[in-house]
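Side project, low priority. Logging it here so it doesn't get lost.
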Amino acid sequence: MDMCSSCQYNPQIVDRLKNQIPDDNIINNLAEMFKVFGDNTRIRILWALFDKELCVYDIAGELGMSQSAISHQLKTLKQARLIKSRRDGKNAFYSIDDDHVKKIIEQMLIHVEEN
């Protein structure tokens, strides 16, 4: 199997993908996750948070959008467990939840830029 240098081969996952169709609940959860990634604004927010923690005000400024529009999308991203928040007084700071989210974005970008 050809792999790019940044891919990590996991034989257990590959065998599972080849041999077992997941149950409907897992398929539905995967489809819902792809829907979350299917929005330009949410991708831009994830991009802004890729290597730094930001508050709503900073994200809105970086993306040229209103704070209310950003807050709405942050709620969706947080519900999908793609981002997390940290409170500091009255301010909430947002960051990417874990390295899995970064890897998903990196792999999507590699795929998009292949051609």
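Brief comment: Residues 28 and 39 are 18 Å apart (CA to CA).
Revisit when time allows.
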